[in-house]
Amino acid sequence: MNxxxxxxxxxxxxxxxxxxxxxxxxxxxxxxxxxxxxxxxSTVR
Length: 45
Prior knowledge:
The chain has 45 residues and is an all-alpha fold. The protein is 69% helix and 0% strand. The chain has three helices and no strands. The mean pLDDT is 77.
């Protein structure tokens, strides 16, 4: 997740009104699920 947070974000997302408040929350919530997909298949909830 650290690598993802350090990566540059495309301008179309970075310039959105909610970027500053929502980006970290969304990454922290969704990224762990994406990490589990290779281990458990595509049905991780």
